[in-house]
Specification:
The chain has 90 residues and is an alpha+beta fold. It has one domain (2-89): Alpha-Beta Plaits. It has 2 helices and 5 strands, in the order βαββαββ. The chain has helices at residues 17-27, 50-62, and strands at 2-11, 31-36, 42-48, 68-77, 86-89. β2 and β3 (42-48) form a beta hairpin. The chain is globular, with a radius of gyration of 12 Å.
Length: 90
């Protein structure tokens, strides 16, 4: 299992980004979380197989229809804690 920590910048809050991210993660068997940050970015911690994570990251670069992703930072890490599902955090 691998882990990708993403910070997504642009018009990504208030456009259902978290809900679409959770849906896509569930489809790809990815666990972790998505969260809106106070600075207007969206944070995602995604765990899964490398192939699925790459597909998931490609989707995050696009985002849902109303979103405009301007930048996406990725940090590949070794998981410290394994998640059992993908959830939306507040």
């Amino acid at each position: 299992m691998k882990q990708a920590h993403l910070i997504i910048k642009g018009i990504v809050q208030g456009v259902s980004f978290r809900y679409y991210t959770r849906k896509k993660a569930t489809e790809l068997n990815i666990v972790g979380f998505v969260k809106n940050k106070k600075d207007g970015t969206v944070e995602v911690l995604a765990q899964g197989r490398e192939e699925e994570l790459k597909r998931f990251i490609a989707w995050c670069k696009e985002g849902p229809e109303m979103a405009t992703v301007k930048d996406l930072d990725i940090i590949w890490e070794k998981p410290q804690k394994e998640f059992g599902q993908f959830m939306i955090r507040r």
